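User: What would this chain look like folded?
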Amino acid sequence: MIMAMDERLRFMRDLIRPMRVAPGSSVRLSRDHDPGYTGQVKRPDARTMLRDGAQMLAGYQDKLASQNALGLLIVMQGLDASGKDGTIKHVMSGLNPQGVTVRSFKEPSAEELDHDFLWRYHAELPGRGRIGIYNRSHYEEVLVVRVHPELLTAEHLPAAARRRIWEQRYRDINRWERYLVGNGIHIVKIMLNLSKQEQAKRFLKRIEHPEKNWKFSASDIRERGYWDDYQLAFNDMLSATSTRWAPWYVVPADHKWFTRLATAAIVVRKLQTINPRYPAPDPAAAELMTQAKAELETDLSG
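Assistant: Here's the prediction, encoded as structure tokens.
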């Protein structure tokens, strides 16, 4: 059993290695990351592997909750139809929902706009012993806001804050994430890398299949017109904010089955690294358990 576990962990390590963005590297998605990549994995095998990954996640979550010393924040970014919702659903299906919070950040409210750009994200962080998932995140502030800089008007920024704003926001994000990790809230950052052709296919399915009509939004089609701008924004974001304490993983998103497997592997490997453990009882509690055990065994034998 131990060997089987070791083999699975080694497989996950090798699977995700090409997806990790090395800190300090310069990223160009079109050159460095193929949205259709599936490695050596065959689809029929992926289901069993994903099930194994979900079981491992559940085991780590139980230890994380019982230790109550560390937290995990999973950041999911990707263009429309890249599969964020489905990936969260399938990968996290085996977790105890009492210990998981999923937060999807939409257009900021008036109250949120009256604060600094990280304020609303900080307020939703997972506590110790818990897993938080950001379905879109603070990185929207250097993606959609960069592609649509007119959105900055509503933030009422002072003139000094507008100078070299994207570089400053990258620095602020890196420092904030380092602060979180230093305080026990570890971070996994996953960018789902979808091709333009596959996005078109998924949009068409939303139009052609009645049960998917509810997913369609005209704004998604409008945003598709900014495809090249988003690619450039992602390139700069990945290059500037993949750090030693919170590296990015660019996960191929054209094949949903592989996306889910790779995402599970990334989260499992992070939890293995932070290594949560069941806490040992203090001596007084251990003595009380010994006494209780003896009493219960006496009751059963009587």
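DSSP finds 14 helices and five strands in the chain. If you want, I can go into more detail on any region.
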